[in-house]
């Protein structure tokens, strides 16, 4: 009897080279702009966004963040709680963008073989809760 059901649980990660290829400034700049416009993200601070080569530089008040190749580097006064909040928010956004783009690419690669559905789920990753994209494929 043929089986048309297979279950696989795979912990996939985006390699550094792939991350650089998918997290281009053109892709993430509009998403960072949209994130900063969300209610409650900014506290009447002055914001500037600039593209500098392969990086995006975001200045919020006295906090400067440089986003390059999926990494967020922050320049701020040591112990600045606001800088940490912004860095955490932007870092989570960039990680989410990478996950979504990677899932889109995998989904496109699997589509010729069957119907692929995607949903966001929370998983335990070595004790850390993490939102990931779960793909489910129904074979033809």
Please describe what this structure looks like.
- The protein is of the alpha+beta class and 140 residues long.
- The chain has a domain at 16-112.
- Helices cover 36% and strands 34% of the residues.
- The chain contains 3 helices and 6 strands.
- It has helices at residues 16-22, 25-37, 81-110; strands at residues 47-52, 55-60, 63-68, 71-75, 114-125, 128-139.
- A 4-stranded antiparallel beta sheet has the order 1-2-3-4, with helices on one face.
- β2 (55-60) and β3 form a beta hairpin.
- α2 (25-37) crosses α3 (81-110).
Give the H and E element order. Answer: HHEEEEHEE
Cα shape: elongated
Low-confidence stretches: none
Alpha-beta classification: alpha+beta
| Beta strand count | 6
Largest sheet: 4 strands, antiparallel
How much of the sequence lies in strands comes to 25-35%
Distance between the termini: 16 Å
Count of DSSP-assigned helices? 3
Mean pLDDT: 83
Helix percent reads 25-40%
Largest sheet, order of strands side by side? 1-2-3-4
Radius of gyration from the CA trace? Answer: 18 Å
């Amino acid at each position: 009897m043929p089986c048309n059901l297979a279950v696989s649980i795979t912990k996939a990660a985006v390699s550094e080279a792939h991350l650089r290829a998918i997290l281009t400034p053109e892709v993430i700049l509009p998403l960072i702009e949209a994130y900063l416009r969300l209610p409650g993200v900014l506290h009447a601070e002055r914001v500037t966004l600039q593209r500098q080569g392969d990086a995006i530089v975001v200045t919020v008040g006295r906090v400067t963040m440089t986003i390059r190749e999926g990494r967020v580097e922050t320049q701020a006064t040591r112990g600045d709680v606001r800088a940490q909040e912004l860095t955490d928010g932007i870092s989570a956004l960039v990680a989410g963008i990478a996950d979504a783009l990677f899932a889109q690419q995998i989904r496109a690669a699997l589509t010729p073989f069957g119907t692929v559905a995607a949903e966001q789920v929370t998983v335990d990753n070595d004790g850390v809760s993490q939102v990931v994209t779960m793909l489910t494929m129904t074979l033809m």
